[in-house]
Amino acid sequence: MLEKRESVPSGAVVPDGRTGFAGWRRADLGVLLSFLALAVFVLIRLWADPNGRILDRNDDDHGIFLFMLAHGERVVFDGASPFFEAHVNAPVGVNMMANTSTLALSLPLAPVTHFLGAGVSVALLLTLGLAGTAAAWYWLFARHLVRSRVAALIGAAWCGFAPTMISHASGHVNFVNQYLVPLIVWQVLRLREPGRAVRGGIVLGLLIVLQIFINEETLLFIALTMGIFVISYTVMRPGVARAVARRFVAGLGVAAGVALTLAGYPLWYQFFAPGNYHGQPFAPSDFVTDLFSVAAFPRQSVAGSETLAQRLSVSATEDNTFFGPVGLVMIVVATRMLWRSAAARSAAVAGLVLLLASMGPRLQAGGTRTSIPLPFGLISHVPVIDLVSVTRFAMVPATIAGVLLALAADRIRWSSPGRRRRFWAGMALALVPLFPTPVPVIPGDPLPEFLTAGIWKRYVPPGRTLVPVPLPDVTVGRTAQRWATLQNLDFAVPRGYFMGPTDPPGDRTGSWRAPVRFTSELLIQVQLTGMRPYLNDEARKRIVADLVYWRASVVVLVPQSQNAPALRATLTDALGEPQLVGGVEIWDVRSLPVPPAE
């Protein structure tokens, strides 16, 4: 199913029939260390103070992965449930399987989170994710796909540090850690070999389970890509496909059995346990790939333009194409060079199909939504597909581009000197402008003594919550959630930034925030407008009722919050004068009743 050799020009010197190069040398260790050095360079600003700085491109998602890592620390050190977190969105909690909980990453790094802080764990995972993904692809190229170290280096560097990877490094720990992708792809392809159905199926099943606990969206992309690849290859080489079909399908069956046996309960928990949801809080057409972005430079590169990228991308962490003008040309050139290979053609078809899918139901070009319909509109509401941010389908062609470039760089060795010079000149013009720059960061608000000295413990008995104001919420309450996560969720807080149902049980549509309550909406409006509302007795009663519902024992005003004076005045009107304790103003509400546990 995967062709190991291409025909070469007449008179060319061809190595033996093996793929990969013989033995590992010191140069290969140098390549791997260079990947690590480049990853450190990309994250160097965060490494300067990982617990005190925030990724500027996507501070919300930086915060949510601090939450995921703090949850992993609680699982290991406090015996909390791996699939449910009670210390965020109290008293309801969060279904962690219905979120990107990254348990395969957060649990092994729990000691780092516990002793050094969740910020260090985020920086470490982003760095090792970039370097590890490149290293895994280098292994695959070196062992199985090319004979040239230069070709392996180019392909691996592209797959590990492509614009889409650098973009997601500004907040998406789950998408940066893709080192299982080449292993899964290779294990799928090896199922065609005799005697691999059981052994290969078991290995593949175990890899699938691990990927489920890193990022299910990536696993969906792999499945769609391999499905399109296999269908395309079957059409092009029906005889070969028929010869391997029985053992290939048997291997997939074994892999599915292993994966469902090990991950069946967690997946049931994700889709049916409390906190489950369906769909996204946005339509598929909201976040799509712009046609012109395919040939543009990424903002996080030496040739990038922030202004242009903003027009062509849905956000700074979703620059999923941005191959550059010469880069796009070289991808086309590489595809043309490899066109005689059915495997390369099938890979190109898979990349093209998913690139088209990433453009959504209607074409967008230059930031303008056109009326031209696209095929994705026919499947946009299919279950599971409707959970995907559509533009992320473009991550697949970005990776396939790296594979095609590596194979073309390997094959060009057998071409004429003139053609080799033109090819390498094109590669230089394509790759040099895409060289990444360090991701930007901003300073985070320092944690007050009330938290760092453990003063909060005097005010928050077991079963009660600390209510920071502004309340933890998407965008407007990032500091409060960061407070809790950098304390490894030692205290429970209401609300938060996570994925859950909008208003259960009536509305289970996915939402980025907890269901609306009177006090949360009131305080958000005060924070955003700076206007102190008039509170009558009924409003005060509703605020107290929400505090009782949240099982509050202390309300803490975040000192650096937007419009803090208006928030202070509102809370004082509702709860009386605050106390200044440990660098923060607090309202001690331990006298409020505690509702019975549900």
Automatic annotation (TrEMBL):
Sorted UniProt keywords: Membrane, Transmembrane, Transmembrane helix
Domain of life assignment: Bacteria
Protein name: Glycosyl transferase
Chain ranges passing through the membrane: 29-48, 115-140, 197-214, 220-236, 248-268, 322-339, 346-364, 384-409, 421-439
Gene source species: Actinoplanes teichomyceticus
Keyword Repressor in record: no
Ribosomal protein recorded as keyword: no
